[in-house]
Amino acid sequence: MRRLCLLGFLFVAISENARADIIFSNFGPGDSYGSVAWQVGTTFVTQNAAARFTLGPTDMFFSSAQIAVFSAVQPNLLTFQVLTNDGSNLPGTVLENLAASNIPTSPSVITFDATSPLLLSANTTYWLASDVYGAGDFGWMYNSTGETGLATRLDLGPWIGGTSSGDPTPAFRINGTSAAVPEPPTLALVGIGLVVLWGYSRFKNRV
Fold first, then answer.
1. Tens digits of per-residue pLDDT, 167-186?
2. How far apart are CA 78 and CA 103, in angstroms?
3. How far apart are CA 198 and CA 123, in angstroms?
4. Would you say residue 20 has pLDDT above 70?
5. At 156, which CATH number?
6. From CA 116, how far away is CA 17, in angstroms rounded?
7. Which of 53, 70, 117, 139 is the most exposed place for a label (fewest CB within 10 A)?
8. Region of poorest pLDDT, from 44-58, 101-115, 125-139, 161-175
9. 1 lies in a domain?
10. Dihedral in degrees, nearest 10, Cα atoms 78, 87, 24, 70
11. What is the DSSP letter of 31?
12. What are the distances in angstroms from CA 171 to CA 68, 100, 128, 181?
């Protein structure tokens, strides 16, 4: 029983260091967002929208994006992309594609999980963008916190706006886990626990 308790304590110590954190969010209280949406796809023209986010002082592994969206098309598959920031503070190179299906017809916060490990660098700006759509209507709800800087493009043309835009950005949250190695106190705690567990096992075997 003591061994199980010690193992549980060690698991908590290790998992606490790897828990998911919020990298960025422009949701309001209670995951609230605006009542107007950017239409990211239509039948006759391909429209894309993007919003930027900047990391703090720690490298992070991207784990998921939570996005306020709805779909007028059922069934559906909605895709987004994580992109670099180019030299003009606009979306650059695609780093990862995200997808979620069965998006509801009413605005909802939908989770788009990472498809592969993606390391995001500290103090660096990235973009979350709607992917290319040839048909179908999807809405990406604006934020309600006053953040601006929407980037847009039509029919795969150049991105415009971005940091120079006064338009509100769509609502989203970026989640991730720290890429930093465990802190020395955590490593020491785990090491001591393993030694105690080893000693306890030897003692039990000799009794």
1. 999 999 999 999 986 555 54
2. 7
3. 42
4. yes
5. 2.60.120
6. 20
7. 117
8. 125-139
9. no
10. -20
11. G
12. 6, 16, 10, 31
Cβ distance 127 to 82 under 8 Å?
yes
Answer for the pair 68, 171: CB distance below 8 angstroms, yes or no.
yes
Q: How many structural domains does the chain have? A: 1
Tell me the percentage of the chain whose pLDDT exceeds 90.
59
Asked whether residue 34 is assigned to any structural domain, the reply reads yes
Quote the CA–CA distance of 82 and 97 in Å, as a whole number: 7
**Is residue 155 helix, strand or coil?**
coil
Rounded-to-integer distance, Cα 6 and Cα 118, Å: 33
pLDDT score of 147 more than 90 = yes
Average pLDDT, the chain: 82
- pLDDT for the residue numbered 17: 47
Domain interval for residue 36: 20-181
Instruction: Compute the residue count for the chain.
Output: 207
- Tokens (6 digits) for 120: 């995001």
d(CA 56, CA 70) in angstroms, rounded, equals 30
Q: What is the DSSP string of 70-139?
A: EESSSS-EEEEEEEEE-TTSSEEEEEEEEEEE---SS-EEEEEEEEEEEEE-TT-EEEEEE---SS--EE
**pLDDT at residue 125 tops 90:** yes
User: How many CB atoms sit inside 10 A of residue 155's CB?
Assistant: 10
Is position 10 within any domain?
no
